[in-house]
Amino acid sequence: MIWAQYPRVLVFAIASTVRRAAARIPLMQAVHIAITRKVKRGLEEPFQAALRNFARESLGEAGTTGVHLVGPLPGGDGQEFGILRSFVSEAACRAFYDSPLFAKWQDQVAPLVEEDCNRRQLHGFEAFFRSTSLPPPRWKMAIVTWLGVFPAVLLWSSILPRLFSGLHPILMTAIVSGLVVATLAWGIMPLLTKALTGWIHSPARENTLFKQ
């Protein structure tokens, strides 16, 4: 077998892939925050106008990479609105939410909403589902993730043992799992979330002001 005769070729190829992936790690450190608020009945239009102005005003804040506004969510009472904001790092995220600009927005919007905002950070593969709306149901994310994991595991667990039959099972598992993660992060998941976006996301009315 050609790979048995030239193992260094495969090792070099894998190392090159790892180096290219490592160069993109800062992109994976981006922080995505989803915030929803329930607006008082009858004040939806003033709230939306204020939210649009705040989003435009805050786009220039250091470390902000994207802002997405989401209208009333389907199945709700028409009073819940959301905003999804992306940052280059955790430090940039903290700086924004501790800023005078955000504090001013909190004071401005307080008379328009029924309660304090619901804020949460998107983690791991959940961030792949951020592009067009607030996070979809977790069961949908689980199905799409499984659709990505299954072929990646099948591919690498079938190929690598044939190429490196002499490797210790623990080392083989480590290599397979590493390649599965890389395949998901930079190949399968972006394609799946784009192809299935119509099913993943509810048809919420959305106003995208900026997208990197």
Broad shape: elongated
Order of helices and strands: HHHEHEEHHEHHHE
With strands numbered from the N-terminus, the spatial order across the biggest sheet is 4-1-3-2-5
Multimerization status: single chain
Summarize the amount of helix as a percent range.
Answer: 40-55%
Biggest beta sheet summary:
5 strands, antiparallel
Provide a count of the helices: 9
Quickly count the domains. 2
Structural class: alpha+beta
Uncertain residue segments:
1-15, 21-27, 203-212
The third-level CATH topology of the largest domain is Alpha-Beta Plaits
Report on this model:
By secondary structure, the protein is of the alpha+beta class. It contains nine helices and five strands, in the order αααβαββααβαααβ. It has a five-stranded antiparallel beta sheet. α4 runs antiparallel to α6. It is elongated and about 70 Å long. 17% of the residues are buried. Mean pLDDT is 76; it is low at 1-15, 21-27 and 203-212.
Question: What's the arrangement of secondary structure elements?
Answer:
Elements: H1 2-5, H2 7-23, H3 25-28, E1 31-38, H4 44-58, E2 64-70, E3 80-87, H5 90-97, H6 100-109, E4 118-122, H7 138-163, H8 169-195, H9 197-200, E5 206-210
Antiparallel strand pairs: 1-3, 1-4, 2-3, 2-5
Helix pairs in contact: 4-6, 7-8
